[in-house]
């Protein structure tokens, strides 16, 4: 850097302030977590009813725990994209976005409370629709 | 800290009006701004970082944000980055008090090919 350039260079930096890391949002984690919830419901269903085998009980507890954790991941991932990524102009295109997010969060709660294949499938579908909306705003 | 009279731009949320690496002259006297469209240097409410944004609405203006709208107080402005998809601005941190504005960028003196006044229009 020449002396003149050094003399001209401002000592203050101002930030145009982008999202950091810039625009990296991805609903894939939510989809994967919803899939995991559904899979855990399936696995729980495969454990022989009333079995007192240690292996079965261990599997049961494990599946329930993973189901809970992943329902929580769905809630977290969806909430972040909803609050941080979506902007008012997206809402104009998808006026039911808030309603959809609310429904997903409720469904995630329902899946924590119950072992319910229908609710798990519903959650997966709702998250998939949310992801589709997300990607459509990227086009 | 005294208000800067020259600043260098980092990050891309004011593209294409301002590029990272642009060097700007700043008018640190706050009497006539914020005018709508003016490019201002602001101390960001949440972070305290010096940021550069454009005045989208002035004190007393009403700002529509989706279903709700905000009426700006007499000492508040609404700031947006030109590059809407990537910018963190009033849409995230809300109205900015006028005393957080530290200057208005009015002239680009480098790079040489881009020397000139900074307009009040958002070019997209």
Question: Could you describe the 3D structure shown?
Answer:
- The complex is a heterodimer of chains A (139) and B (124).
- Chain A is built from six helices and one strand.
- With 139 residues, chain A is mainly α.
- Chain A has one domain (3-137): Up-down Bundle (Four Helix Bundle (Hemerythrin (Met), subunit A)).
- In chain A, helix 2 runs antiparallel to helix 3 (54-85).
- Chain A is elongated.
- Chain B has 124 residues and is mostly beta strands.
- Chain B has one domain: Umud Fragment, subunit A (Ribbon), CATH 2.10.109.10.
- Chain B contains one helix and ten strands.
- In chain B, the strands form two sheets. In chain B, strands 1, 2, 3, 4, 7, 8, 9 and 10 form an eight-stranded antiparallel β-sheet that branches.
- In chain B, a hairpin with a 2-residue loop joins strand 5 and strand 6.
- The longest helix of chain B is centred in the C-terminal third of the chain and has 4 residues, at 90-93.
- Classes of the chains: A mainly alpha (139), B mainly beta (124).
- The interface between A and B is medium-sized, with 20 and 39 residues.
- Strand 1 of chain A pairs parallel with strand 1 of chain B, so a sheet runs across the interface.
Q: Helices and strands in order, then pairings?
A:
The complex is a heterodimer of chains A (about 140) and B (about 120).
Chain A: H1 3-8, E1 12-15, H2 28-46, H3 54-85, H4 88-93, H5 97-113, H6 117-137
Helix pairs in contact in A: 2-3, 2-6, 3-5, 5-6
Chain B: E1 6-10, E2 23-27, E3 39-43, E4 50-57, E5 62-65, E6 68-71, E7 76-80, H1 90-93, E8 96-97, E9 101-110, E10 116-117
Antiparallel strand pairs in B: 1-2, 2-9, 3-4, 3-9, 4-7, 5-6, 7-8, 9-10
């Amino acid at each position: 850097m020449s002396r003149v350039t050094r003399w001209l260079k401002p000592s203050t930096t101002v930030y145009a302030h982008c999202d950091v890391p810039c625009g990296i949002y991805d609903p894939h984690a939510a989809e994967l977590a919803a899939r995991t919830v559904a899979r855990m419901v399936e696995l729980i269903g495969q454990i022989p009813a009333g079995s007192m085998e240690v292996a079965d009980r261990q599997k049961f507890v494990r599946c329930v725990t993973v189901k809970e954790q992943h329902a929580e991941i769905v809630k977290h991932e969806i909430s972040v994209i909803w609050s941080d990524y979506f902007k008012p102009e997206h809402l104009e295109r998808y006026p039911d976005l808030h309603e959809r997010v609310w429904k997903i969060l409720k469904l995630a709660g329902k899946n924590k409370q119950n072992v319910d294949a229908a609710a798990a499938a519903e959650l997966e579908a709702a998250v998939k629709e949310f992801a589709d909306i997300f990607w459509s705003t990227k086009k | 800290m005294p208000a800067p009279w020259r600043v260098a731009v980092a990050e891309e949320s004011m593209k294409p009006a301002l590029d990272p690496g642009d060097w700007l002259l700043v008018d640190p006297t706050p009497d006539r701004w914020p005018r709508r469209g003016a490019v201002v240097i602001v101390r960001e409410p949440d972070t305290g970082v010096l940021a550069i944004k454009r005045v989208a609405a002035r004190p007393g203006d009403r700002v529509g944000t989706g279903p709700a709208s905000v009426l700006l107080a007499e000492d508040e402005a609404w700031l947006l980055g030109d590059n809407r998809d990537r910018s963190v601005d009033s849409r995230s941190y809300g109205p900015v008090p006028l005393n957080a504005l530290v200057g208005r960028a009015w002239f680009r003196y480098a790079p040489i090919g881009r020397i000139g006044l900074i307009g009040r229009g958002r070019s997209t």
